[in-house]
Amino acid sequence: MVSSTTLATLLSGLVVPVFVQADPAASSLPDDVLPAANLTSDPIDREITTVEIPLDALPSLNNTSASGETANISYFPIEGLKEPLAVVYGDVILSTVPELLNQASNSNNSESKRALSIFRSGNVWPNGVVKYKWRSESAKNSGRLEAWTEATKRWTDLLPWLQFEEYPVSENLEEDILTLVDTTGQYACFSPIGQQWYGQMMLDDACGGAGTYTHELGHTLGLYHEQQRPDRDDYIIINCENVWDSSDGSPAVCGPDWCSGYGCNFYKLDPSVADWSGPYDSLSLMHYSPYEFAKSSGPAIEARPGVPTPQPHEFPTILDANRVCELYADQCTGVCGNGIIEPGEDCDDGNNFDGDGCSANCKTQRSCDVNICEPWRADSCHITTSCTALGGATQNGQFNHMCACRHGYKASKDNDPSLQVRLPWAHQKNRVFVRAGFSCDVLCDDWQLGTESCKEVQEEPACY
Ligand SMILES: [Zn+2]
């Protein structure tokens, strides 16, 4: 048995960063899990077809493994408002099926080549305004309106400058307005990438609710799947033998030079397709989770050692929001939740949860009378938190613990290490820690997120 005094001494000697970060309420999660994560085979036997189309039709999708002037692409059809739509990568609407087949049949006729709709140039939404409408009033039923509203909020909480502009209900497809179409029993939702001509988003009553809708909106805003990044093999392993078989029983083929069936959901994209800069984010909203499209034999995706396991689609990560911000650079005034107070934000405590120091939309800061580092206080809302277990910090000076500033801030223009230091812990390298009695109210010289931030403050080996 360890006495309480001994335990306190042991605890106080531990240098354990304790960062107070509320998690989303668990009760809000169960409805949001993509059903595919729980299915061990294709529930409606979608027929996946591979066609050969000219590279010119896919100007930004020309995989380097394709030879000559054509590339193979696998799709399955879903019902659209006017014509059937061709889906690739599991949930991405590429074009209409006739449009795709027209490309395929003309693969040797250069004069008829025309880029498919999805790849209209610069297909982000002008001015960061997503124009949308429902196909009918009844399309909003079965929880679709609630899930859509929640999904848009999950994005605008992070990106307050982003706008969703609703237009009157109409069955007609409009060139520049996304039409929200209700489907039933598809076990999946589908979206184009970016603004598509006469675009449609298919919202199913059984596709996973707000979490899946949020993922589809990621596509609509212009994001691809994270697991299709060219560098993904450094972070994850695709277990193709565990991927769903095709409806005819043939096994999936996952590339790299060739894919078929559901293996094409894990097709690695060419570096030229998009700007893949920035760290690989296995926790991205746009990353398939291990058991999506997986048979009962095991996970389709496995994280390599040290890489966080991908999770079911719920909320955008800060990295997801950063990518959207880069796509809409002219509109983006900041990312709420990155820990940096940017124009239009009243606060930013490094997360997107309500009920803590700063609201999910960075507009309301909880009132707080603590504005200097008091590491012995659990309620240190201005200073992010203490760098030690709170139980180990004492007010009598026995232990000189420090407080972590929010990202990008430091205590003083004087970079004297007796006032403030940086500490070499994983994920905290760009944070400044200050001594008790000081306030983190000075922006670092380079206050952007990243390991280069606040480098003028000396790094020390440990908290002291
Ligand atoms: Zn997707």
Keywords:
4-stranded parallel sheet; 15% strand; binds zinc ion; disulfide bond; EC 3.4.24.-; zinc
Q: Can you give a write-up of this model?
A:
By secondary structure, this protein is of the alpha+beta class. Helix content is 12%, strand content 15%. It has five helices and 18 strands. The protein has helices spanning 4-13, 97-105, 144-158, 210-221, 318-327; strands at residues 49-54, 70-78, 85-88, 92-96, 129-134, 163-166, 178-183, 200-204, 236-238, 253-254, 259-260, 301-303, 385-386, 402-404, 409-410, 420-422, 432-435, 442-443. The strands form six sheets. It has a four-stranded antiparallel β-sheet, with helices on one face. It has a four-stranded parallel β-sheet with strand order 6-5-7-8, covered by helices on one side. A four-stranded antiparallel β-sheet has the order 13-14-17-16, with no helix packed on it. The protein is globular and about 70 Å long. Zinc ion (ZN) binds at residues 90-91, 215, 219, 225. Zinc ion binds next to helix 4.
